[in-house]
Amino acid sequence: xxLDFRFSDPPRSTQVMKRAMDLLVSAGLLLLLSPxxxxxxxxILLDTGRPVLFRQRRAGQDGEPFTMMKFRTMVADAxxxxxxxVDLAALDQPAFKIPDDPRITRTGRFLRRTSLDELPQLFxxxxxxxxxxxxxxxxxxxxEGYDLWHRRRLSxxxxxTGLWQVRARREPEFDRWVAADLxxxxxxxxxxxxxxxx
Length: 198
Description:
- By secondary structure, the chain is mainly alpha-helical.
- It contains nine helices and four strands; from the N terminus they run ααββαααβαβααα.
- The longest helix has 21 residues, at 12-32.
- It has a two-stranded antiparallel sheet. Strands 3-4 form a two-stranded parallel ribbon.
- The mean pLDDT is 87.
- It has helices at 12-32, 34-48, 78-81, 106-114, 121-126, 140-144, 163-168, 174-187, 190-197; strands at 53-59, 65-71, 131-133, 159-161.
């Protein structure tokens, strides 16, 4: 159990406005970007075949599991090959990333560089599992390795983007990621969301 002390608690009306913004923006972007989504799907099919989408269980608000969607940027058996690459990790646990990951496909490199692989998460936003802005959703295994203070980043709905992504996306130290997420949680407002999205 974690007792969470908050210095500010946004009014219910502000939280409703955040959800309304999530719905309007994600639905609008999905309609507007539908030709791009189809084009990316075709590029993945032509490059490496099916599946086009990568689905992965993530920890959402309060640790509730949900299935996050992305365009597939790695080879189809990437999860099975992970054990062979763990010693290449560039980041301290519990976070895990590999520089120049050999499992990334040709199309996947472009999608990751431009963050276009994240676009299917707009469906997660529509479903209410994610928000446009918030802490990035961790893997359940990463949550098991959290220190106690890390867990407060689960107190808010996860987002497609967040404060640390715009401030220090390449930051290798996990504790600094979390510090930025907690700063966002403590400072959260609709205006801050708009700034981050911009």
